[in-house]
Write a structure and sequence with these properties.
Elements lengths: L2 H4 L2 E7 L1 H10 L4 E8 L19 E4 L2 E2 L1 H7 L11 H9 L4 E8 L6 E8 L6 E8 L4 E6 L8 H23 L3 E5 L11 H7 L51 E2 L3 H10 L4 E7 L4 H4 L4 H6 L3 E10 L12 H14 L4 E2 L1 H7 L13 E3 L8 E3 L3 E6 L7 E5 L10 E2 L4 E3 L3 E9 L2 E2 L4 E7 L9 E2 L20 E2 L8 E3 L2 E3 L2 E5 L2 E6 L4 E10 L2 H4 L30 E8 L2 E5 L3 E2 L5 E6 L6 E7 L9 E11 L7
Parallel strand pairs: 2-3, 8-9, 8-11, 9-10, 11-12, 12-13, 15-22
Antiparallel strand pairs: 1-5, 2-5, 3-4, 6-7, 14-16, 16-19, 17-18, 17-20, 20-21, 20-22, 23-35, 24-27, 25-26, 27-35, 28-34, 29-33, 29-35, 30-31, 30-32, 30-34
The chain binds zinc ion.
Length: 627
């Protein structure tokens, strides 16, 4: 389309300024130039219109332009406003509240004036500067918006940011920006999707090395974001982009430095807005990411409201992952990388609807029912809400929905029992955020070793056909015949199962308790990747070529349940890869006949739902020497 046809015009006659406001709100695209023509235009309330909302409004009286506003806007707006004679006449006869508007709507090839922020490398003092960009020459690159992260707090934070990101990307597309997804390791999962195929077909051009970018990240980190207590183990279980994120048909999905650079060059995209995660690792250092494209000479900025760093959580300070992200963003600003508040920019051009509720209260640590956070005696939970500002966070611990009368959050507080936590932000008694919901499960004490292990007694035969409709439990080995392994520890005694499965035992009067440590079998991590179809000999990051559960670690989910005479007497939470084993120590009521050890697939069938019962068996009554 030519420049002129990109401009859209709306012309209307409106009585009174309040109606003009209404009219502007109804427009789908932001008003970039607004010409007010009429008898009273020069002294109308338009002078008071918030310049942020109408960054380039211009006034005219009887069709004449106002040079002051035109110059400020940096646009030749009035030249393109043509008035036919009929409208001139109308304007002339208009009574004092009758206005004729020519409203010029945002066009893809028009400029946007952003406020960029950098910091003095020594003092950290922020510097604000205006930056004029052409949205049609702008890319938004999202780094590693994975559907799974080994740290459950990190994973939940991504999920909680998705609504804000979706709306922000919607706005970016409306402005004509090119949205580019860079899911790095898992880009191959998008083979066959047009967004990936269009990107992969780009003619490659050499990437120049024009400058260096050095950033010093100062936020404490290095482990998981869950804080003190049981930490998440590193693995690479992601196999795609977070399902809550919306990929548009016109977006691109890229892989690798040269491909990314080539696309930007071929499309003439020279202003790159980075978002995604983690700011201090992948968003900075990946081949598709900020450092790489900056060094190739492209103008790169960070959306400081659309990223997350991986840092630590310290409830004592308190220091939350949001503090870590803010600190990391300012480290980048000190390194000379400007940041923008993307949502604020969209608000300025009228694209952001302030009625959108897109942010949730964030929790640290952050487990869910589907992937619970385990703790031993107590854990301290922090609640944060970076957006919206000036809110009260209120929460409940009894599973009920947070209300304006719920307990107000002041600082990290302890949980000592298995708890469902729900939190939301309120302003003047009105809920202004999405809900943040967490699930925290308290582990019981470590059970003693059994006196009678399961391999020493015979289970009861099942009535369904054993040879076909049942995965056979394996004694003292994992279901796959490997050593029983959970969170790096090998167990000699126990049972390996593939869920769903069970083992039923007749109970003897001398049995006092059933004990076991249970969880997802950990061999997925150490299996040669080829076992699971990954055709690599060695995973370079791991000594000895041991895998990290690549693209699979998110899949196993099982739940253990104990039944005595048909009644459930104990169950584990949903168990995921690398969880600390759940602890069973269950008293057997006198006169009980049957114990059924069951494992369910927790609602999602997977061939990787491999469950281990370790050190499982019976503690006897009056045992001479309890172990
Ligand atoms: Zn974690």
């Amino acid at each position: 389309m030519s420049k002129m046809t990109d401009w859209q015009w709306k012309e209307t006659m409106i009585q009174g300024c309040d109606m003009i406001d209404e009219f502007l709100k109804e427009l789908e695209r932001p008003v970039i130039n607004l010409a007010v023509v009429g008898m009273t235009a020069s002294n109308s309330r338009y002078r008071e219109l918030e310049p942020i909302r109408y960054p380039a409004y211009a006034f005219g009286r009887m069709g004449s332009s106002n040079r002051k506003f035109r110059t400020e806007a940096g646009l030749s707006c009035m030249e393109e406003i043509t008035m036919d004679s009929r409208r001139h006449i109308l304007a002339r006869v208009a009574v004092f509240f009758l206005l004729v508007l020519g409203v010029k709507l945002w066009a893809a090839d028009r400029v946007l004036v952003l406020q960029q922020q950098t910091r003095d490398p020594k003092t950290g003092a922020p510097t604000l500067a205006k930056k004029t960009i052409d949205p049609s020459k702008t890319a938004v690159i999202i780094i590693d918006p994975w559907n799974f992260h080994w740290c459950m707090t990190a994973c939940q934070r991504v999920a909680s940011m998705a609504p804000r990101w979706n709306r922000a990307l919607e706005c970016a597309r409306k402005l004509g920006m090119q949205v580019i997804w860079a899911p790095t390791e898992v880009a191959s999962m998008y083979a066959g999707m047009p967004q990936r195929e269009r990107a992969a077909a780009v003619p490659l051009i050499e990437v120049p090395e024009l400058r260096k970018l050095v950033a010093k990240f100062t936020a404490p980190g290095g482990g998981c974001m869950c804080g003190p207590g049981i930490s998440c183990e590193v693995n690479y279980g992601a196999d795609g982009i977070a399902p809550a994120l919306v990929i548009d048909p016109n977006d691109l999905i890229v892989s690798g430095r040269q491909e990314t650079y080539s696309i930007l060059k071929h499309k003439g995209l020279d202003y790159i807005i980075y978002m995604g995660l983690h700011t201090n690792v992948c968003l900075f250092g990946r081949p598709e990411a900020l450092k790489s494209m900056y060094e190739a000479g492209l103008d790169c900025v960070l959306a400081r409201d659309l990223n997350d760093a991986i840092t630590l959580y310290d409830p004592q300070q308190p220091y939350t992952p949001d503090d870590g992200t803010a600190q990391t963003d300012s480290d980048l600003e000190k390194a000379g990388i400007p940041t923008i508040n993307f949502v604020d920019e969209m608000r300025k051009v009228g694209l952001w609807n302030s009625d959108w509720v897109v942010d949730s209260v964030r929790l640290a640590p952050w487990g869910t029912v589907a992937r619970p956070y385990f703790f031993e005696e107590a854990t301290r939970v922090a609640l944060t809400c970076p957006w919206p500002k000036d809110v009260e966070i209120r929460y409940t611990l009894d599973g009920s929905a947070p209300a304006a009368t719920s307990k107000i959050y002041a600082k990290p507080f302890p949980l000592r029992e298995t708890t469902t936590l729900r939190a939301a932000a309120f302003r003047h008694g009105r809920k202004v955020s999405l809900e943040g919901r967490g699930f925290y499960a308290r582990l019981g004490p470590v059970p003693p070793q059994p006196d009678v292990y399961l391999d020493q007694i015979e289970p009861i035969k099942e009535s369904y056909p054993w040879w076909f409709s049942f995965w056979h439990p394996v004694f003292n080995r994992s279901f796959e015949g490997k050593k029983l392994l959970m969170r790096g520890r090998i167990y000699d005694k126990g049972v390996g199962m593939r869920a769903p499965a069970n083992l039923r035992y007749g109970l003897k009067p001398e049995y006092d308790r059933f004990v076991a440590r249970v969880g997802v079998d950990g061999n997925l991590r150490h299996a040669p990747p080829a076992d699971y179809g990954l055709f690599v000999d060695k995973v370079p990051s791991e000594p000895g070529g041991e895998g990290m559960g690549e693209m699979f670690a998110q899949q196993p989910s099982v739940q253990f349940r104990l039944f005595i005479d048909g009644e459930m007497v104990a169950e584990s939470p949903v168990m995921r890869f690398s969880q600390e084993p759940w602890r069973f120590d269950v008293k057997i009521p006198p006169g009980s006949r049957l114990l059924n050890l069951t494992v369910t697939d927790a609602g999602s069938r997977s061939v990787l739902d491999l469950a281990d019962w370790a050190d499982a068996g019976f503690v006897l009554k009056n045992a001479a020497n309890p172990k």
